[in-house]
UniProtKB/TrEMBL annotation:
One of its GO terms (cellular component) is cytoplasm. This is FDXA1 protein. Signal peptide: none annotated. GO terms for molecular function: rRNA (uridine-N3-)-methyltransferase activity. It comes from Probosciger aterrimus (Palm cockatoo).
Amino acid sequence: RRVLLIGEGNFSFAASLCGAEGTHVVATCYESEEKVSGCGGAAENIQRLREKGAEVMFSVDCTKLKDYFLPGKIEFDCIYFNFPHCGRKAGVVKNRELLAHFFHSSSEVLSEEGEVHVALCNGQGGTPADQPQREWHNSWQIVAVAAGAGFILSNVHPFKAETIHGYKCTGYRSQDKSFCVEGALNHIFTRSMPLSYCKPMSCQIELENRKVSFQVPQVLVDKINRGFLEPNSNHPVQTLKEKLTIELGQAFPLQNIDSCLSLLHQGQLNVVCHSNIFWIILNPEETPSTEEMSNGLTNAVLFHHVDFCKDVDKNGCVNVQEGCHISKQYYLRPSLLPYAQAVIQRGAFLPETLYVISGLVFRKCFITPYSMPVFHEMVFVSAINRGTEKSYIQMLVNNIKTSIHSLHQTVSSFKLSINLQEATSFETIELNDFVAFESQLSKIQYLICMDTDTSGPNEKGCCVGVIRTADYELVSSELVIVFASLNLDLLAMLICGIHDWRMLWTSDNRFLHQFPRGELRLFRSFSLYSPSYVHDVSFWIPDGEQFDEVAFHTIARQVSCEMVTSIQLVDSFQQSETGR
């Protein structure tokens, strides 16, 4: 393990690290050997370092680190810079600049999974960990400065000088004098994941007995085919699905529907759903058959009315003109409910059996930490005797509660409550995008609500599932169908304390390694105190068009690579003279 120490004064910190098993220390300082040797204890520490096999380097500029090392010895696993300072009476601006250049330089000599440790005096960093916290403009703004070089603050803890054997701080105003390190903090930085500018992607599927392809909406390119629900996945969403299936399988005859479900739906939707749908243009992969040509069918007519195609953009947004004829509409599935409805029409459908369907669904929505344009839905469907549906639903929910509670107890000690509410009363729950869309698909009888004592989407609680009932007259008028739908992603977030849906979709191993196969754990954030910025945008609406706020949020997701975390509509204005 190669460790690089920057800006050593009397080399007492380096001497305390030297000799640790499996560690090779490279200690550097900005001054010459002649000047440093005059500092109290420096000569003895330098001699000790050399005797133990450490490298000691002088006149090293921390802003040009790669210039001092050969290509084969350029990567370090850890870089320490304790109490950096430009010297003399340099102010916060100059010290920010020093840190900015240091972080850029460190990125060139740090291993991919390495750490940068920066110790600062109390208040200098400008983070909430400083007590008291300085005003932002009067701090070194260390998190923002590090972000400029591709680093995130992954941990911060007290710098306890008294626990470091032989350590003596020195260098106050470039002199051989000590300074106060009470309340000092050690900031640990790791590399951030680079923004993923995903290339356009096409999917090929079989539809109506022919192969077709379609371009995936840009905001979903990195979400398709991630395989979170594969049997060998250790993703928390898959763990949650497995645990729920096992628990419910002990209480009900249960059957998983493992058949391949099409990503696309076809047909008319309620008009209120149009702005929430990812519309798709299909491209034929082969020429039409002779029979199709003789029937006057062209590829354009087979899949879409050509006028409709012109109004679909790369984000799956569509402008449906009033009175416009659409021969066939295709869109990414916003729900698994149609597949659940198809299950009960099968000849082999067994009453009292709980059928389970799981998979991705896609819905355009507003930008908030708990609103998801794509998530994993788990749908349960069963046929039961009329008059028993209320007790059956309560038994189903009780088993879901038992399963979630048993999972939660292994994760954390914070309080969690799950309850069933009639859909006629919305005062005590958060009407999130999940509920709002579900209510547009068909009538909801019950809501499955969950609340924790950690910060969540709303103090009132959050809806994580819905339950519907419907008559079943294909076989017997005495049967009633129960449909239950769960948002697995939202459930996983609430159980594991994940406060932003985007984290579920990261490919960062620092997230994935926190969840061993078959286990749920309380998520520990590895990016602390991220700087955020607020911008105002204003624009005119083209003549004759209405402002679609959901479409605007969808565009913002795509062009910002999902870095925008919230959007609020502040005001709208209409010019009286022109009507614009």
